[in-house]
Amino acid sequence: MTTTTREPAIRVRAVTKSYQDLHVLRGVDFDVAPGSIFALLGSNGAGKTTLVRILSTLLRANTGTATVHGFDVASAPGDVRRSISLTGQFAAVDEVLTGRENLVLVAKLRHLRNPGAVADDMLARFSLTDAGNRRAGTYSGGMRRRLDIAMSLVGNPPVVFLDEPTTGLDPQARIEVWQTVKRLAKDGTTILLTTQYLDEAEQLADRIAILHQGVIIQNGTLAELKQLLPSAEVEYVAKQPTLEDVFLALVGDTADGAAMPAGGESR
Ligand SMILES: Nc1ncnc2c1ncn2[C@@H]1O[C@H](COP(=O)(O)OP(=O)(O)O)[C@@H](O)[C@H]1O
Ligand SMILES: [Mg+2]
Known about the structure:
One of its GO terms (cellular component) is plasma membrane. With 267 residues, the protein is α/β, with parallel strands linked by helices. It has 10 helices and 10 strands.
């Protein structure tokens, strides 16, 4: 039991969800502190998306309760929706439109005043200003995912759900998304992200919860979780340079992720 006066930004209590005979969530409990990054780690089919859909009011739990930004997902879904953004696993970007047009469209849909200025602000925040007037179809994977996240953040919601934000991205694009997520949290946004990647949770999360067979089997800081492993494995995870490190050292960790034009000279 916590004695802090700060309400958790997300509170999940005994949430269950079944699809017919398939008991996906069997009693999930956790809290997410405001302004923190919380990683929900689980293998394919563990129920991560199901939980995110419950927390973002797209799906109802069978039993249990959850609040987001102080609002109950079952009894105040409208308030929850106004407090969150959700970026799914598959990018919602319109490839025919430019990056800027995509953002203007979302700002208009949200009935924001001055959608052009909102779009320009988001382009700047996500290092997409130079690419703003290019069709999104020409963007690299990392730029597209950044645009997708930017679109979901129009209106500056206090709580953000990122469902497998880097699945399918190349290592360089993943780093770009990680930098974006870290910057968001620094600005005070609460982030719940799901991932299958240990290194992603390791890089980003203040707390990591492991969802397995319908329940949270571990929930702690990276240091706490590492103490659970035998030391040899800790050494392997912590000391060895990863293939990703090598790849990035060779390719160069450029921020814009711009593709080299065909026949372009390399450095
Ligand atoms: N609408 C649905 N109807 C039936 N089964 C579903 C439905 N949605 C998800 N599932 C099943 O529930 C389990 C958890 O899915 P999901 O939450 O998408 O997992 P994750 O996001 O962790 O990969 C999977 O076995 C999936 O096949
Ligand atoms: Mg999923």
